[in-house]
Structure formats: structure tokens, C-alpha cells
Amino acid sequence: KDVVLDESLQAHKMELDEYLACNDPAERKKLLEGMARYGASLIPSLLSYIPVSEQGAGGNPALKQRLQRLVEFCEMIGDPALYRMLQLLEKSGDAQRMQILILLGYWRPPRAIAPLLQRLFTETNTSIQRIICNNLRRYRGQDGFSKLLQFLRENLKSNHPHRLQKALFYFGHLRITEATTDVIELLKHPQPIIQEYALETLRLLTLQNFNGEPKAWLSWWTREGKKSRKQWVIDAMNHPQIVVRQRVKSELQLEFGDDFGYEPTATPQERDTVRNLAALWINQES
């Protein structure tokens, strides 16, 4: 059972149950307006309806609908709901932090970008890191993401090593490819630690490995830079280095939502079969 309600929240349970189960838009709107009197104090109750799972709704239509209705409440309350979630994010355990982040991922309020970035850099739980990254990627195409990209690119030109490390961390973990040539240039940085961060970022972004050789990376970029990252992932399925192929499995899940049964240790013929499946996915998307 994915709903575990704290006893202190039982007073709101009946109204929430009725609202979440209601399929009549007009009636649901009335129920929503009635719950508005609770304001942001209702947020802990809402969270208890969200499963503790890195996949969020996944392919579950009923759960997706539930999350969409919870988002309707958050949108009605606005900033107070966001601030309450951010407060809880700072003092909650892993389970509730996952619930908060899943809800934020479906809501996507623009003001959440900066707090999510900060949380990403300090978070040590890898499952929660992945949820934050997925949330931030969903902002692509929005004004807030464009500002984030501009901010990160400016930080790549910083003289402060800590700012450079942070910017590289974000580019890598968010799989932002727009500044790949700038990252390649940082392989020439006088500080070895920055060179190491730049190299790891390039490996994450491209699923290639030319070590710390800027010329080799630029040569690859000249040939492949116009391709989508999805295509880079597909091309890396038959990479000669096993360490690169081991990364492909999780990147397939990230880019396509499915690893297509890919195994890095499979034969080249078996990997080609999976590669063709993923390529078909891209063609259908186009």
C-alpha cells in the first residue's frame, strides 16, 4: 500500500479522498475551493498520497491523475504551498523528501529552480539526486531554464575554482550539452582538479572517452556535435570500452524511459538489435 497517513492528518483525509476521487470537473472545483481554507497547512496531507518511489507515477495512469489533481491544489495556493514544501525539504527524512520532489516535478513552479539546484549540489542520496535532475530537466523550454543555462555558462568563465566545479557538476548531472565546447576548453585549465571535473563532465554528457586530450574531443565534436544526445547514447552502445557501455544502460533509461533490454556485456550482434530498437524510437519521435 503506497499511502501511509499520519494520525495527525486524518482530519483532512475524507475531503482529500473525495476530491481525488471526483471525476466531475465542476464538483471537483467546488471541493478544491473548499480545501483552500486550509492553505499551505494541507501540504503534509497531500504528500502522504504520493508513493515513495524514484519512478514517480511511471506508467500508472491512476497515480498520474492523482498527482495532477494534487498539483491543481498547489497551483491554487501558489507560493505559500511552494515555501511550505521547501521548508519540509530542509528538515524531512529521505522518504518525505522524495515525495516533495515528485510533486514539485509535476508542478514545476519557476521559483523552485534555484532551491532545487542548491539541493542537488548538497544532496548525498543518489536516488534523490536523480529525482532532482529529472525535475530540473523538465524545465527545458521554459524561461527559467534559459536563465539557468546563461548563469551556468557565465560561471564556466569564472576565475574561482569552486564556481567552475559547481557549474561543471550541474552541466554533467543535468546532461546540458549546449556548452560542450566550453567544457572541452577547460581540459586546458591550469588547475588539475578543474581538468578532472571537465573530463568527467564530458564523459557523462557524450558517453565517449578521449581522456584529457582536447584535440581528440574537439575532433569528435566536429563530427558528432550536431547530433542529439539520444543519438550519442545509441552510438555508444557498441563503444569498444566496457566502462562506457556500462553507463549506456542508465542513460537509455534517462533519455528514452526504457533501456530496451540493453546489456553492456552482450555480443555486438545482440547490442545491434537493441540499437536498432532505440533508433526506431527516434525515427517514430521525429
Low-confidence stretches: 1-8
Please describe the biggest sheet, giving its number of strands, its sense, and whether it closes into a barrel: none
Round the Cα radius of gyration to an integer and report it.
Answer: 22 Å
Helical amount? 55-70%
| End-to-end separation | 39 Å
The structure class reads mainly alpha
Shape: globular
Number of helices: 16
Structural commentary:
The chain is mainly α and 286 residues long. The chain has helices spanning 10-21, 25-35, 43-47, 61-77, 79-91, 94-107, 113-122, 126-137, 143-155, 161-173, 180-185, 192-206, 214-224, 229-235, 242-256, 268-285. The chain is globular.
Quickly list its features.
disordered N terminus, 286 residues, globular, mainly alpha
Short description:
By secondary structure, the chain is mainly alpha-helical.
